[in-house]
Amino acid sequence: MSKTRGRFRGALVVGVAALTLTGCAGAGMHPGVAVQVGEESITMAEVDEIAVDFCDAVTPQLEQQAETVPNAYFRGGIAGTLALRSIADQVAEDYGITLDGEDYTAQLAQIRRGVAGLPEEVRESVLVVDSAPLYVEEVQASVGEVVLEGEGDRQAFLAAGQEEFATWVAENEVEFDPSLNTVAGEGTIRNEDRSLSFAVSETARSGNAAEPNAVLARRLPSTQRCGR
Question: Helix, strand, coil % (nearest 5) of the chain?
């Protein structure tokens, strides 16, 4: 993870969660759908709402560091985060997994305490992002433990759980709206320029970059950037 991304609370999951995924191209996206994850549709409205809340939450931090981030960076990252959570939800349901262990509950409570100081109207959205890595990993470990019938350690359970996630994704549709510049494949959910239009200017191209360029981001209209 880059130093820049690491400074944002809830470091977005795109490019970080190596799940050994193989994307399956769908027949086409329905209007208003940001990500199709198996039987579940995640709407653009959901992605945009969390992206706005997340931007509001990190703006003081970005302004303190004199940094600016294109909104597209947050939207793609949040779409990836919601997709990972959806995959975890559906795999957990398939295996009858319920996360109620003491360690998981304690770690989730710690994350909740970490966002407690945020305004109430954005707190839940940030919690969704901040808790995603913990949730996905715990589901993977729990699934792996079932698959291995309890024989092995946590690393073995995680590896087995990741394989089950990969199998699920290979058998189900995971498709992002091209405007989000996010794809599932080659071991990650990652940023990739899939825009239908061609970004001509350097400033426009900065919105599609895998890492935010603060200098170019400041040239974007205020409605398209987060921070200064």
Answer: 55, 10, 35
